[in-house]
Write a structure and sequence with these properties.
- It is a single-pass membrane protein.
- Pathway: Energy metabolism; oxidative phosphorylation.
- By secondary structure, the protein is an all-alpha fold.
- The protein has 4 domains: 66 residues; 33 residues, no CATH class; 28 residues; 37 residues, no CATH class.
- The chain is built from 7 helices and 2 strands, in the order αααααααββ.
- The longest helix has 30 residues.
- The two termini are 71 Å apart.
C-alpha cells in the first residue's frame, strides 16, 4: 500500500511538473514574440519541451514499474504456519527438469528413494520444516534492548528534571515539621471514627 501511494504521489508530481513546463513554455512563447502577433515558438524550443515531457513520462513509467508489484489475491497463496500445516499451493510451482524427474520417481516405491531425494521432495512442497518454523529468533534481544534504552532515557530525563527543573522540597517535609503536623491533626481530632484520630488513645497519650 505504501509503495502504491508513493507511486501515485510520484505520478501526481510528474503531472504537475508537466503542467508547470507547459505553462512556462507558453509564457516563454508569449515573451519571445516578434511583435507581429506571431505566438509560435522557435523550433528548438518545441524540441526542448517535447524532450522534457518525454523524460517525465519515462520517469513516471519507471517509477510505476518499480513500485507496482501486483499480487493476484484470487489465486492460492503459500504461507508457512504451524497452525495451518497445509498451504493452499506448493512452495515451488515452476519445476526444473530434475524436479520433474524426481516427481516421476515419487510415484514409485518410496523405499527406493534416498534420504536426500525425500528431503528434496519435501522442499518442493514446503519451504520450512516444523523445527525451522518453531526455531526462536534473536528478535527478543532487539526488543529488550530498545525497551531498556527507553527506560534509561526516561530515567535520565527524570533525573535531569529533578536536578535542574523541579524546585527544592518544601521545608515542611523535613525535620520535625511532619511530627508537628501529625500532632496538630490529632489535637484537631481529624477523622475520629475510622481515621487517624480513632487510633490514638487520648487518655494515655499513645497509640492504641
Amino acid at each position: 500500500m505504501f509503495h502504491l501511494a508513493a507511486g501515485r504521489v510520484g505520478s501526481l508530481a510528474a503531472k504537475r511538473a508537466t503542467a508547470a513546463l507547459s505553462t512556462s513554455s507558453a509564457r516563454m512563447m508569449a515573451s519571445h514574440g516578434h511583435g507581429t502577433g506571431d505566438t509560435h515558438p522557435p523550433f528548438h524550443q518545441q524540441q526542448l519541451l517535447v524532450s522534457a515531457l518525454d523524460k517525465l513520462r519515462q520517469d513516471d513509467r519507471k517509477r510505476f514499474r518499480q513500485v507496482s508489484t501486483a499480487v493476484d489475491m484470487s489465486k492460492p497463496l503459500y504461507t508457512d504456519s504451524v497452525d495451518v500445516p497445509l498451504p493452499d499451493r506448493p512452495y515451488k510451482e515452476v519445476l526444473t527438469d530434475a524436479d520433474k524427474s524426481l516427481k516421476q520417481k515419487e510415484k514409485g516405491p518410496w523405499n527406493q528413494l534416498s534420504k536426500e531425494e525425500k528431503l528434496a521432495l519435501y522442499r518442493l512442497k514446503f519451504l520450512k520444516t516444523y523445527p525451522e518454523m518453531r526455531h526462536s529468533t534473536p528478535e527478543w534481544k532487539t526488543v529488550l534492548g530498545v525497551a531498556f534504552f527507553f527506560l534509561g532515557l526516561t530515567g535520565f530525563v527524570v533525573w535531569w528534571q529533578k536536578v535542574y527543573v523541579f524546585p527544592k522540597r518544601p521545608r515542611t517535609f523535613e525535620g520535625d515539621w511532619p511530627e508537628k503536623q501529625l500532632k496538630r491533626m490529632l489535637d484537631m481530632r481529624i477523622n475520629p471514627v475510622q481515621g487517624i484520630s480513632s487510633k490514638w488513645d487520648y487518655e494515655k497519650g499513645q497509640w492504641k
